[in-house]
Amino acid sequence: xxxxxxxxxxxxxxxxxxxxxxxxxxxxxxxxxxxxxxxxxxxxxxxxxxxxxxxxxxxxxxxxxxxxxxxxxxxxxxxxxxxxxxxxxxxxxxxxxxxxxxxxxxxxxxxxxxxxxxxxxxxxxxxxxxxxxxxxxxxxxxxxxxxxxxxxxxxxxxxxxxxxxxxxxxxxxxxxxxxxxxxxxxxxxxxxxxxxxxxxxxxxxxxxxxxxxxxxxxxxxxxxxxxxxxxxxxxxxxxxxxxxxxxxxxxxxxxxxxxxxxxxxxxxxxxxxxxxxxxxxxxxxxxxxxxxxxxxxxxxxxxxxxxxxxxxxxxxxxxxxxxxxxx
Length: 327
What we know:
The protein has eleven helices and 16 strands. It is an alpha/beta fold. α4 crosses α5 and α4 (122-135) packs across α10 (274-287).
């Protein structure tokens, strides 16, 4: 029997057994090594921290199979599979489970030399890429990232890789600020956003940032982000809050001609399909242009599922990359 993690109700999670399914001609069977917890999304889903009528409310139905970032080894291939073989290591947008049966087209091979514990960040990396891409970060740009959680950390790294001249991270926790520095941030500020405006201007040479990326998922941050952006600047909402009615527009939008862009995981496509973004993440990881040192802080066996989510919920300040180890 295989095993998977399931949210069975509000604040209820468990490890369940299920029978392995057969593979079709175009599918492969994957034996999972690691899956990465999306701490923001999964704690919102598990705790049902969203308003009625929101996109979350329409999406979340219990039992809910959690997770969307997995890495494992190909152990069986269908007769029509062309580009994968047994022993290949692949990542996929699949949940927390000991094994998966996946269409070949949904598998992304991991280049040799990349640690599985870092490769499995591909999905969160892709989400953050959507925010930086939506902002159209270019050489010489000034970028403020609000929030140093997993999504914010990856946004810092993408902005640096994209050629931004100054990338500033604001967060209250020193551990997250240290990771931001390691990821290439020009400056980090350890203060609440509403009391950090002077420090932010100083970090950008006396000016407001042209691009502000809010990665917090906190609805209260939105109006503050509008206030700190430069005239004719861009504010990117990267992450779907569970309480969107609390995101309040201010007069800054009209008076200073701000552009507001929502960036979401589902916005890939066109010139930037998910496969290209994942490939770019792996390439920059291999070359050292993206540093992921110290980005994983916790690893749990699937049997410790309740402890894992309790840690994600109650010890947010000490967590970053949280893995389930299925080996």
